[in-house]
Structures are given as structure tokens and as C-alpha cells.
Amino acid sequence: MTPSPNVSSQKAPLRTRVEEYFRGLQERICSQLEVVDGKAAFKADEWAHATGGGGLTRVLEKGGIFEKAGVNYSSTTSQLTKKLAAKLNLTPQKVHATGVSLVLHPQSPMIPTVHMNVRYLEPESGETWFGGGMDLTPYYLFDDDARHFHKTLKGACDKHDKNFYPRFKFLCDGYFFIRHRNESRGIGGIFFDYLKGDLEKTFAFVKDAGNCFLDAYLPLVDRRKKEPWGKAEKEWQLIRRGRYAEFNLVYDRGTIFGLETEGRAESILMSLPPEVQWRYNLTPKPNSREAALLTILTHPKDWI
Amino acid sequence: MTPSPNVSSQKAPLRTRVEEYFRGLQERICSQLEVVDGKAAFKADEWAHATGGGGLTRVLEKGGIFEKAGVNYSSTTSQLTKKLAAKLNLTPQKVHATGVSLVLHPQSPMIPTVHMNVRYLEPESGETWFGGGMDLTPYYLFDDDARHFHKTLKGACDKHDKNFYPRFKFLCDGYFFIRHRNESRGIGGIFFDYLKGDLEKTFAFVKDAGNCFLDAYLPLVDRRKKEPWGKAEKEWQLIRRGRYAEFNLVYDRGTIFGLETEGRAESILMSLPPEVQWRYNLTPKPNSREAALLTILTHPKDWI
Q1: Closest to B274 (Cβ–Cβ): which among A45, A59, A278?
Q2: Neighbouring C-alpha atoms within 13 Å toward the C-beta of A293
Q3: Contact status of B279 with chain A (Cβ, < 8 Å)
Q4: How many domains does chain A have?
Q5: Is A214 part of a structural domain of the chain?
């Protein structure tokens, strides 16, 4: 059998194989999401980074299911500022970063917003590492959905290390936390960073994590797309989306890394919701479904 | 003549007189804005700060003119973290901060959004200083409005020092700049910080700055409230408001100071627009009024 010329053999350098996997993952996810959406298609923008490399940003807007879906691939080389290097525990140097990052904002407040990211960082001097994760942000809580999402992630983790899921779930709850609101962004998932050591093994895990994303999320879309909602539910979604914007702009490492390394703003900020509201001091009625969500957001839960 | 018991005499400590002036300024501005709005009234929330002091937040929502108007007074004592102290060029210590801060988001895209702030900072050890400023964020540009706003500010500055207006206008253009977008937040105004030296003289200037706010802004409301607009203009306003949220959450010193010193999130973030849109990579049509605004935002101009 002749190996396909488009697939790098096991012997290609790790970075090459990682980039190839990431590009393929973006492609597969976008194709599937278009099928699920049924109305809009992804537009693609190829761009070059100011200091090296570039990326491919794919955005679907005003779809049947998705109000905005952004799936970004990038592979860039940038010079770390002193400040940013300190945050990453590195000396100021060039770093190569490649990854896939996506955020899906559905029209329906009954379908949760989801985020997924896998990334590979290679500093000029020092150890290479992987990072990534995915987390779910429901506007209305369906326990079954939360359980399915977490179980799928646990399945992908358990294949590699039984300690991964509990550790990465804990890190996720800690990371996607809006400090100034004292509440979680959503109901979590997994988050990992600075995974070093045996990089081939880590890469195998990262692939399984990336690959399980559609299995973790698409069944939720299917279950909830017919769930009824009205103006009040939409408004609640818009207000909660405000929290999402707050988290991404104030705390998210990927966003800050991107903006501080002069990344392409439109690609970095495509994660922001299409429409948002900020109402002063809004508190949901006691015993409402909105209040039930807030209880979970202030008391992270074990879903398995 | 018996001096009124409600007015502190010249001999009261500076901080007392500053707080009294700030509270009075908040009160006067809110009364006037209610008259101008003609429909909604300000709600008031008194709150206590976690580590000392508190404030009075006044918010008007869904008014005739203002979609959201927030005018905040606060007087708090907080312990500076090492990180925040470094930003302020201080050693970690307690600092007393008092100020008035407002942001008005009109319904009509023809009326600009405006921000004003005056503040007084007293570190436990070290020099006290004043800061403040105000800036205009139009969605559609009317040269007359920009000139009136800047001329009024220049008038207030010139009474104290002919160098103030050009210096503070320059600082304002530098401060209200959205680095990752490479564009200004609006058409500027004045911005000043770390005004030390003769504090009585500085206080006199700060009072004139605060007092000129309504004269600088209200005529614009009056001129533009009958200007027609439709869905397309509203959408442009919502998209530009997204930039406003980006600036406030990523760069604004007051917001960051507030969030990092565990201030009351609802009071700090009342500056955020009531409704916002983020559309991917939207570029206005060439030669449109929207494009004309962007030209000004990327090329700050001398308005006098």
C-alpha cells in the first residue's frame, strides 16, 4: 500500500503532525456543524500573523441552530513580552503556538453555548506543552445534558489516565470562574494546560479529547432544539451571555494571549456572543428556572 | 450670617469637602438627567464595600432618551494588592478612593454615549492625587457636536491653566484607545490622572471640570433627539457599543481597579451598554456615514 501523500507519516516532526490533526479537526467539526445547522454555511478567512504564521478563521452567522459559530485554527510565532512571558513562567522569547478554538452560540436559549480548545505551545528554548479543554454554558439547566457532556469527556480521559477527568474537571471549575461575580461561567467540563512529559502520549490524549467534542455536544442540540422558548427566555440568555463576554475579556488566557501578542482581533474575539444585554442588578425570581441555574453556577457539582 | 450646617466650611479636611462636592455633583447630574429624559427615574442603591466605605449607585433604565444611565458615587478604603500597587507606582498599602463616575447610553444612535469621572485618591503613605476626565463616543458624527463638547471642556480647563486642555486632550486620545482594534473609543475629550501638587488649586479645577459636564453634553442631546434613525443605524450603534464593552473590560483602569479591589461588580459594570452586538469582521460600506466615523476613530482630530 502506498501511503497517502496528504497524511504525514509517524516520522514527521510532532509539530507537523499536530498541525495536520488540528486542521483536520477544524474541517470535520465545521462540516458536521453545517449539517446540524441546516441553514447557514461557514465563511472562511485565511490570515497572516504580524510576526509569523497565520490561521484560518471559519464563522457561521445567523444560522438555523447557531446564531454565531466560530471555529478558528491558528499557527503563529510571536515574541513574548516580558509581562506575558512571566505569566507563562518563561523567559521572554519566541514561542510557536498552534491550536483550534471554537465557541458556538445557539439561537435557542434551551441549547447551551459550548467552547472547545486544543493547543500546542513550543517555546524556542524550553519544553513544549499541550493545553486544551471544553466547557458547557447552559442558560436553562437539563441535568441529563450536563451528565451526558461530562460522561463523554470522562470516557475520553479514562482511556489515557483515570486521574485525568477528576483533575481536569477540577481545573475547569477553577478556570471558568468569574471572580468578580463569584459564579462559574457554566457547568464546566475539562481544562488542562502545561501537559508536558511524554509528548506522543499527550498528543494521543489531546486527539481523543478533540475527537470527542462532537459526541459530547451534538446530542444536546438534537434533544433541545424543539424545546419551546419565548421573549423572557431569550432575554435571560442575552443577560447570561453578558457574563460570557465579561469572562472572555477580563480573564480568558487565550484571549489575553492573543490580544497581547497582536493576534488578529476579529479571530480572537469571534468567541464573543452575537448579541448581549447588561441589565443593572437583575436577580431572577426565587424558585424560577433562572434561579436554579444560578444555584448551580455558585455551587459546582459532580455530574457523574 | 450663620453658615449652613450642611455645607462644610473651608476649614474642613480636604477629603470631607471633596466627598461633599462629589455627592452634590451626583445629585445635580441625576436631577437634570431625569428632567431631560422625561420618562424614567433613577433608582438608588446604597452599598457597603467589603473592606471599608461604600457608595451610592444610581441607575436609570429604559428611559425616553436614555436606554441606560448609570451615575455612581463611591468612597471606599481598600488594601492594594502587590500587582495593583505596582500599576499605581505605590507600595502595597491601604488607599482611600472617592469619586463620581457616569456613563450614559442613549436610545438614539444619533446621540453620543458619554462618560465622565472625577476621583480623589489618598494612599495611607504617600501623596494624594486627583484624576478624572470625560469623553464622547458618537455613533454618527456631527462636527458641531464634537466642537461644542471640546470647546466647553477647553473653557473649564483654560480658567486654571492654558496648558491643561491640550495636555489632557492628548492624554485622553491616548487613554481611550482600543489597542487591539487600533482605533479610538470615540472622539475624546479630556483625561487627567496623578494631579498632585497644590491640592486646593487642583480641587478647584476638578470642580470646574465636573461642573461643566452637563453644559458640554446636554446641548447635544437637545440637538439630536429629533434626528431620524432606523434599524440599520441602531445595529451600527449596537456593534460600536461592543467596542465600548471591549475597552471597559480589557483596558479601563477604573474598571480593573474596581474589580481587583473587590468592589461591587454591579456598580463597576453599570458602565456596560444595555445591549450590544458582536458581528464577525463587519466593515462599513465605503463613503458611508459609518465609514466616516471609523476614519475619525483611526485619525484623532483637533476639534477647536
Answers
A1: A278
A2: 24
A3: yes
A4: 1
A5: yes
List the domain range (segments joined by +) for residue A36.
Answer: 14-298
Residue A303 DSSP code: -
- Tell me what ipTM this predicted complex has: 0.88
Reported as a single tens digit per residue, the pLDDT across B259-295 is 888 889 999 999 999 999 999 999 999 999 999 999 9
Check which CATH number belongs to the domain holding B207 and give it.
3.40.1500.10
How far apart CA A167 and CA A184 sit, in angstroms, is 17
A2 within domain boundaries? no
Q: Which of residues 224-243 of B touch A (CB under 8 A)?
A: 238, 242
Q: Is residue B2 part of a domain?
A: no
User: Does residue A5 carry a pLDDT above 70?
Assistant: no
* Residues A205 and A198: beta-carbon distance below 8 Å: no
Q: Are A97 and A128 in contact (CB under 8 A)?
A: no
Q: In what helix (H) or strand (E) does residue B43 lie, and over which residues does it extend?
A: strand B43-48
Per-residue pLDDT of B66-101, as tens digits, reads 999 999 999 999 888 888 888 878 888 999 999 999
pLDDT surpassing 70 at residue B44: yes
Task: Please report whether residue B303 resides in a domain.
Answer: no
Whether B180 is catalytic is no
Structure pTM? 0.91
In chain B, residues with a C-beta closer than 8 Å to the C-beta of A180 are 259, 262, 265, 268-269
CB atoms inside a 10 Å sphere around CB A110: 22
* Residues B14/B39, Cβ–Cβ less than 8 Å: no
Q: Does A68 touch chain B (CB under 8 A)?
A: yes
Q: Which segments of B95-163 does DSSP mark as H helices, in order?
A: 143-158
